[in-house]
Specification:
Length: 244
């Protein structure tokens, strides 16, 4: 939908009106036949039609283009009243700057920032409303540190609130202790499995070393026996030599 033509000051050229809603163009697009439309209007039209609403020429979304520069400039220069005119705003801006003004307009209706409050209030009156809003929050004047809403003043009980908070802290602490316990047990189990695995590896290595040592001792005995045999043969040869 376009801008309500009743908001504009002075004459508005017919070429700057949307061919569908007949209001002043908002976010405009132009068809090859040079008819202009609000983006929302022409997109909604083409959901059910495939032609221009003015001259019935066939058009498609892909054929739509931005407004000619000179028409865009003429559009941006139009003067119009702020939409908050009914609330007292007397500002008149160019179409190019109206959105920026309305975002900051003191007469804009904005929601109260307090959770639970459904009041819509003029921006200029927001501070005054927040000071008396029944949903405003503040710290307990009795020193318990709890944040309360004005509507809950009569129901607030420092002792009960602190007891509840203490129970929550106790529950949280128990949960954390249990988590830490489970984590430590998991780590101990992991280390225990690792140590058992290492022990098994070491035991295998010890058995292998024992086997190697046994083979070495057997080789040593064989060598010693061979040496004795060789010595005996030398002694026998020496005796035979003497006899000769």
């Amino acid at each position: 939908m376009g801008y309500d033509i009743e908001r504009f000051v002075g004459y508005v050229n017919e070429g700057l009106l949307c061919s569908i809603c007949r209001d002043v163009l908002e976010d405009p697009l132009q068809a090859p036949c040079e008819h202009a439309f609000c983006t929302a209007c022409i997109h909604g039209w083409l959901v059910h039609h495939s032609n221009c609403p003015e001259d019935r020429q066939v058009i498609d979304v892909s054929l739509l283009r931005p407004l000619y520069r000179y028409m865009k400039n003429d559009l941006n220069r139009l003067q119009l009243h702020c939409r908050n005119r009914e609330y007292g705003c007397e500002m008149i801006c160019s179409l190019e700057s109206i959105d920026r003004h309305e975002r900051e307009c003191e007469y804009s209706q904005i929601p109260c920032s307090n959770a639970g409050c459904s009041v819509q209030i003029e921006r200029r009156n927001l501070d005054g409303h927040l000071a008396v809003c029944e949903y405003r929050s503040r710290e307990c004047p009795n020193g318990c540190g709890y944040t309360i809403l004005s509507a809950e003043d009569t129901q607030h009980n420092c002792v009960a609130e602190l007891r509840t908070e203490l129970e929550l802290l106790r529950s949280e602490m128990i949960c954390r202790v249990e988590e830490a316990k489970h984590e430590m047990e998991s780590r101990l189990d992991s280390q225990r499995r690792h140590m058992v695995q290492k022990e098994s590896i070491l035991q295998s290595e010890i058995e292998e070393l024992k086997s190697q040592m046994s083979r070495m001792m057997s080789d040593v005995r064989s060598l010693m026996a061979a040496e004795r045999q060789h010595r005996q043969e030398l002694e026998q040869a020496e005796l035979e030599k003497r006899e000769l």
